[in-house]
Design goal:
Elements lengths: L8 H8 L6 E4 L6 H9 L4 E5 L3 H4 L8 E4 L6 H7 L5 E7 L4 H5 L25 H7 L2 H12 L4 H14 L5 H8 L8 H16 L2 H15 E11 L2 H13 L18 E3 L9 H6 L7 E7 L1
Parallel strand pairs: 1-2, 1-4, 2-3, 4-5
Antiparallel strand pairs: 5-7, 6-7
The structure holds S-adenosylmethionine.
Length: 298
């Protein structure tokens, strides 16, 4: 089985504008698809790759230009420093889960298979999805599904979970589906479950906090002219990236100088978000929600 099929591969690699002797970071190694293309373009340069999943660590192809770190990318700067690297020439992050993580039933990322409600990208992580469902109060659960799943009936969702867990804890995918069944909109069940599971996954893995840390630290370590290339898979992440690239902050608040010019640390390489074409989607349907943004540090 393939570990992963990279999305927007050509567009994102081109966006990195690789110098053969530069230092690059792939924050999300996964199956190494993006990394392999970067390595092909390096001569004296180096690639530092991160992935917190030990399964990704297990399939890394050795290469003398590659340093793989089985680490969370939110510790980008410390890890680079530890390896005597102060600045880099480009960073790519292809966020979310790999096909491998999604397709391994026992990891509990998808509603398609019954399995324990786990969803940790880092198998050594302390908190699983089932723990959140067991311990979070009703308001926090409602906020979680509203914020991370963009589900407008999040209060009812939280109410049903809290009522159900008084009788029996929700520990498996089927437990969750059983409780949520009555709230699933007719003929949109899959979309509804996908959003529920996405929301839990984002919370379990602190995905938004990790992304914000990564973006802030990338700004510090990127050289002038260095590229930041980010592929997101849902609107919440995309908004964070878009705002940060446009204004240098996550809220998208514009700061202007005396002359009314926008003060920003980046030059946008693509003003309009890049999405996969029909041909790519036909060959890899899971790439359909990918959104690519590229910026250059000024
Ligand atoms: C969409 S896949 C990347 C696929 C990769 N570009 C390829 O071509 O195969 C996302 C990967 O990022 C990893 N990941 C997600 N969040 C991470 C984090 N905070 N730190 C390190 N790795 C992370 C996941 O474990 C997963 O393997």
């Amino acid at each position: 089985m393939v570990y992963h099929v990279p999305a927007l591969l050509d567009e994102s690699i081109e966006g990195l504008n690789i110098k053969p002797d530069g230092i690059y970071v792939d924050a999300t190694y996964g199956g190494g698809g993006h990394s392999a293309e970067i390595l092909k373009r390096l001569k004296k340069g180096r690639l530092i790759a991160f992935d917190l999943d030990e399964d990704a660590a297990g399939i890394v192809k050795p290469d003398k230009k590659l340093l793989f770190l089985n680490q969370n990318f939110r510790f980008l700067r410390n890890n680079l420093r530890f390896n005597n690297i102060e600045t880099i020439d480009g960073l790519i992050a292809d966020l979310g889960v790999s096909f491998h993580q999604f397709d391994e039933p026992e990891r509990g990322f998808t509603f398609r298979y019954n399995a324990p409600l786990d969803m940790r990208m880092n198998k050594a992580g302390a908190v699983k999805a089932a723990d959140l469902l067991r311990t979070m109060d009703e308001t926090s659960l409602a906020n979680l599904f509203y914020e991370f799943g963009e589900l407008t009936n999040s209060r009812r969702i939280a109410g049903e979970i809290v009522a159900a867990r008084r009788i029996k804890p929700l520990t498996t995918v089927n437990d969750m589906i059983e409780v949520m069944k009555k709230l699933a909109p007719y003929r949109q069940e899959h979309k509804f479950y996908a959003r529920l599971f996405q929301a839990l996954r984002i919370a379990v893995n602190h995905e938004i906090e990790n992304l914000k840390e990564l973006l802030e630290q990338s700004l510090v370590v990127l050289n002038r002219g260095g590229r930041l290339v980010v592929i997101t898979y849902h609107s919440l992440e995309d908004r964070v990236v878009k705002n940060f690239m446009r204004t240098g902050n996550f809220e998208g608040v514009e700061e202007k100088d005396f002359y009314g010019n926008l003060v920003t640390p980046f030059r946008l390489i693509n003003r309009k978000v890049i999405t996969p074409g029909e041909e790519e989607i036909a060959g890899n349907n899971r790439a359909r929600s990918a959104r690519l943004r590229i910026a250059e540090k000024i």
